[in-house]
Amino acid sequence: MKKSAADIWEDLKGQVDFLTEAGAGFVLKPAKGRSAGDPSRSVPPAPRQTASRPAAAASSRVQARDIKPLPPAAPPLPSLAGLPAQTAAERRSLEEIDKQVLVCRLCPLHKLRTQAVPGEGSRSAELMFIGEAPGRDEDAQGRPFVGRAGQLLRKIIAAMKFREDEVYITNIVKCRPPDNRVPHREEEEACSPYLVRQIELVRPRVIVTLGKTPTDYFVPGREGMTARRGNFGDYRGIPVMPTFHPSYLVRNEGNRELKRMVWEDMQKVMALLGGK
Ligand code: SF4
Fold first, then answer.
1. Cα separation of 235 and 95, whole Å?
2. Ligand 1, pocket-test mutation among 186, 191, 217, most atoms within 8 A of CB
């Protein structure tokens, strides 16, 4: 349908109004030789109150109402560096965490577990190893890192001249995911407060993250493990060394280069701890 001169004027006026409000910085000037009030012009004057203005205002009200405010950013957790020695009460709190984990039902993984695996080792360890989640053997025995990968980790610990009861070993998720799949984000979110509290109470001087899942949690990054391993990150003042998960080494048993890299990472940890 052909637009009338009045409609064309309305369209043009609407566009100019929008561009002016958007800061385009110009106004529609009347044609040369005519004033806005010139009765001889062929285009009728625009009404002062255009129909498009209330609609635009309503639209902006809808948008403002629909935008949900962002939740307030969580305050950063306090540094754990330089805290005083662990107290007896804090030691008891660690035992309490173990008890809570054993009966925990915070995420669906509790339905499939044989038993939860809180962690083991010294409750005031200087060195903490954090893996992903219990596997089949760990689920059966209730202890972390007891399968083939665990045996390798324990050899690495011995090579570092630590006894197993001098370090603390645990996982980011305390119950076995089905088929040893990677824990889901919700499972990690449900379970990680236990781990965070364990770290706050044990207060290790160095954390070693084994594989991508715990590394992503403590020192997030976009690169793969090959690029991230061997470089210290920081978790609340505690140096964090990412390295390959021992199960990756077991799956690539003939790859001596992987073992060399892990050992190189552990040497950096030993150097930071001042040697044994
Ligand atoms: S994985 Fe963690 S949060 Fe989930 S049931 Fe087990 S202990 Fe609880």
1. 23
2. 191
How would residue 10 be classed by pLDDT, with cut points 50, 70 and 90?
A: low
Q: pLDDT tens, 158-196?
A: 999 999 999 999 999 999 999 999 999 999 999 999 999
C-alpha to C-alpha distance for 230 and 240, rounded to whole angstroms: 10
Give the pLDDT score at 63: 65
Q: How is residue 25 written in tokens?
A: 């910085």
DSSP conformational letter for 108: G
Helices 256-273 & 148-159 angle (0-180, nearest 10) = 50
Query: Where do the structural domains in the chain lie, given as residue ranges?
Result: 88-273
The pLDDT value recorded for residue 171 is 98
Among protein residues, the one with the nearest Cα to ligand 1's atom 2 is: 191
Helix (H, G, I), strand (E, B) or coil at 240: strand
* pTM for the structure as a whole: 0.75
For domain 88-273, the question of CATH label 3.40.470.10 is answered with yes
Query: Distance (Å, rounded) from C-alpha 199 to C-alpha 173?
Result: 14
Name every residue whose Cβ is closer than 8 Å to that of residue 197 and which is 6 or more positions away in sequence: 93, 97
Strand, helix or coil at 180? helix
d(CA 199, CA 28) in angstroms, rounded, equals: 67
> For residue 102, is pLDDT > 50?
yes
Residues with CB under 6 A from ligand 1: 101, 104-107, 109-110, 116, 173-175, 187, 190-191
| Of 202, 242, 241, 178, nearest in space to 118 by CA | 202
Q: Looking at this protein, which amino acid is placed at residue 267?
A: Q
Distance between CA atoms of residues 194 and 187, nearest Å: 12
